[in-house]
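lol ok so funny story. i was supposed to be doing the assay writeup but got distracted and ended up predicting the structure for this chain instead. priorities right. anyway since i did it might as well share w the group, maybe its usefull for someone
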Amino acid sequence: MASEITGGCRCGQLRYRFEQDGPLLNYCCHCLDCQKSTGSAFADQVVVMIDVLRVEGRSVTSSLPRPSGGLTTAHFCPDCFSRVHSINSERPGMAIVRGGSLDDPMLAEPFTHMWVKRKRRWIVLPDHLPVFEETPDAAEFMRLAVAHRQR
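and the output, tada:
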């Protein structure tokens, strides 16, 4: 049975919801772009199919080319400037929701970490999770995502 997942920006003006069967497809990216965009050591990201993501409220966007290809368009609240989700032109049909924007961020447990060659030395990753030095091959990422969803 599907669960409704909700979240939004810091001030509450920009909200989202989506239905999800099984565990969230949550990963952590330690690349320098994610560190810069979050102002933290990594980005906590949740893959959501765009056709089930419902967004309410006002947003502004910013688009930047990605080193790995495509154009990422990030959606921010115009009042508190929280980045809530983004889309990448190279990954049609998928949105990336920031894990910290979930109303219950404890729902997000990563199934992998990427760009660990840029990981801060003080971060210790669990031994049981697969890690990638850089961006994983799309087929390998999807294989891991499907395996995670079938747990």
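The domain at 3-149 is CATH 3.90.1590.10 (glutathione-dependent formaldehyde- activating enzyme (gfa)). The chain is about 15% helix and 35% strand.
back to the writeup now i swear
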